[in-house]
Inverse folding.
């Protein structure tokens, strides 16, 4: 089975491809000739995943899936949430985003947070949503060099390391994206 993954984020594509069985081939937006920025104008994570999947299906005619992810911090009323990638501005700098978040929480003892990924799958004329959540804490300082985004400041429940310190094999098992992708895989296996 060949599915378009509505992303040009090479880190996300690599992470997802590692999780999928070899019977499912991932094709990127670049592979189908989609070079435009797909609008992410919804005010929810679910809404952005749906917008991206529908854009590819409607404009290019492919079965596809799209994801959107946000970091939701309890002490910040769920922020940065849907604005996680642009939290510190349109430059989408992970370093700037982490610095802004650490500053916002600098004197706050409540470090509870979770990552949320929603995958919208458009296949055979239908749409299906899969949600994965990883609970954890925001650390005081950055640690680790693996992963991307907020990984160096997110410590998942039951672990002493940040996502950026864990191996990709462990992270893929316990992460928000890993959980949502496992639901997607189970669904696709049962469709055959």
């Amino acid at each position: 089975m060949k599915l378009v993954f509505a992303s040009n984020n090479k880190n996300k594509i690599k992470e997802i491809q590692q999780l999928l069985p070899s019977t499912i081939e991932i094709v990127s937006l670049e592979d189908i000739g989609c070079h435009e920025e797909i609008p992410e104008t919804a005010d929810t994570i679910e809404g952005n995943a749906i917008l991206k999947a529908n854009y590819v299906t409607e404009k290019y005619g492919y079965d596809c899936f799209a994801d959107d992810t946000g970091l939701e911090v309890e002490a910040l009323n769920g922020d940065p949430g849907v604005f996680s990638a642009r939290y510190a501005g349109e430059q989408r700098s992970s370093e700037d985003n982490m610095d802004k978040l650490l500053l916002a929480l600098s004197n706050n003892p409540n470090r509870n947070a979770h990552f949320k990924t929603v995958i919208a799958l458009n296949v055979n004329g239908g749409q299906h949503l899969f949600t994965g959540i990883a609970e954890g804490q925001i650390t005081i300082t950055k640690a680790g060099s693996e992963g991307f985004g907020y990984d160096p400041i997110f410590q998942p429940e039951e672990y002493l390391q940040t996502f950026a310190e864990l191996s990709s094999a462990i992270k893929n098992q316990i992460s928000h994206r890993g959980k949502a992708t496992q639901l997607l895989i189970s669904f696709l296996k049962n469709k055959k």
User: Anything to note?
Assistant: Helices lie at 10-19, 45-60, 94-104, 168-174, 176-191. Strands lie at 2-5, 25-27, 64-73, 80-81, 112-123, 126-138, 154-156. The chain has a mean pLDDT of 92.
